[in-house]
Structures are given as C-alpha cells and as structure tokens.
Fold:
Amino acid sequence: MEGTRVRGEQIVRQWRIIQILLRRGAKGVTAPELAQELKASLRSIYRDLETLQKAGFPLYSERSNQRSYWKLVEGFHPIQTVPFSMDELRALEVCRCCLRPLAGTALADPLDRTIAKVNAMLPGSTPIRSCFSTACWPSRDYRKMSGVIRSLQEAIELRAVLTFRYRSLARNETRSRIVDPHALYLFLGTLYLVAHCQLRQEIRLFTVDRIRRPRMTGKHFERPDDFDLDQVMSDAFRVHLGPPEEVVLAFRLPASDYVRERTWHRSQRVQETEDGGCMLRLEVPISWEIRAWVMAWGPDCEVLLPDELRASIHKAHRLAAKAYD
Structure:
C-alpha cells in the first residue's frame, strides 16, 4: 500500500515537471528550480527527468551561464485538454470530501491522485477548490485497515469466496466466516462488507473494522444477475437487514417539525395530529438500531406499534431514569 502511494506521488510529480517545462518554453528550467517548486529532493528530480526521457518525452539539457537548463524539444505539445467543466471538477472535490473517512485506503487515494493530476493540468495556479466539506463523528481511522480493504476489494472483483475471522459484538465472540463478497458499503463513516454468509445462508453486513485475516479460498461464486446493492439496502433501517414490521411513532412538538423535514426510510408515511405533532409510520426491521433511534428522541417520541417495541422502549426509559435517581 505504501509503495502504491509513493508511486502515485511520483507520477503526479513527473506530470507537473512536464507542465513546468511547457510553461517555461525556450527558457528552460534548472533541476534545483524544479526541486524547490515541487518540494522534492534534487535526487528525486534527476530520477524523474531520467524516467521521463526513457518514457519517450523529448527532454534535453542545455548549458548556459554555467547552469544546466532542462527543456522540451520545440513544438512538443502533449494533449492537455481537461475533459471536465469546472462544475464537474468541483463535483470531484465534493466526492473526495465524502470519502474523507476512507483516507489512506485504496478506496480514496486513487481519487486524490486523480485530482492532483487534474490540478497539474489546469493553467497557472488555479487548483480545484470547493466550498463544501463533510464531518463524520465518531470517526474511524481506516489507514490501519488498508490491507484488509484491499483484500476485500480484490475478492469482490474476482468473485472469489472469502474466509476471515470476525468478531461479533452481540455474541462477544470471534468466529471464522466463509462468505461470497458482493460489495462494500459506507454508512455514516463506517465501512461494511455486504456478503452472502454461507453459515446463515443470507445476505449479511460485516463491519470491516472487525474483520481479521481475510483470505481467498480458491473457489469462486456466481453473483446473481439481479443483485442490486441499493435495492438490498433500501429495506434496511440504517444498516440492519431483516423482515420488516410496521412501526408507528407519535412525535410531539418541536421534534415533529424536524421529523417532517426528512425522509427516514423509503416506506415512511407522515400523518398530522391535532396537537401540531405527527405520526410516523415505517415498515422496517426491528433491531437495536431502531430502538436506539427512538430512544434518542427522549420524551418527544412515543411508540404506538408494535407492542414489543413499545415495551422494550418503556423498560429502557425506566432503567435510564433509575440511573439518575
């Protein structure tokens, strides 16, 4: 992974050398000037110049005033058209912001290198800028998981059956799993592997942070032609999959105003109530995620259905109140 990153930096630096040489034209540029502008060592610059010559770029050096000036053969002009509008370039920067939780991994670094190359092609000093940013808390550092993520990517692309050790928080145990990996899914800064679990014989989500020692078994699987990740996740509440049940929630002011502003699930239906509040109807799996979400609204949310969820939330609120007595 480190070698890939370094190689990417070299390519970007070499492309910028070409841009500088084109800009300087017949005047040329010295290796020390290149090193200063690119913030690189002189040794790296000489190595880059040699690499560019071997790659077929018509570079040569010419002595003047006891200094060597590097130039491109007159008339040389590589294709420099940037095939994007500025709006499209800004969209790339927005994508990079959205992938910030995956910085340092093979999922985000290629986009960083792409934007660096595009910046090097833009005239003068007009790099892509964006008035957009993202924040995701609590955050996770996926740099230390870059090797695992790379292995998962390869298995997905090759449709290779994968085995790994997985730590389940619910059962507080680590077990071996054999899965058919379909896709990676990023939700609220957490990365998941979406895979068909051969143990459970169903699609499951595995938190990438808890995957250890992934290894391809040598076997391959056929991904269903109709597999659609967006469709699979559209039935989930957040990331929990399962059979849906009708959930009816009553929201009081001011929480009801906040609820009306958003789409919480594709199945939702909002009904106004006489006191200014609203009722939210959902068809979602019952899990700890729906319980935690309901609990977060405190006294502004009341569960009307199903009875089991209502009893669970009632008990949780009593225990929480007891902790403060």
In short: The first strand starts at residue 59 and ends at 64. The chain has a mean pLDDT of 88. The chain has four domains: 2-72, 83-134, 144-234, 245-323.
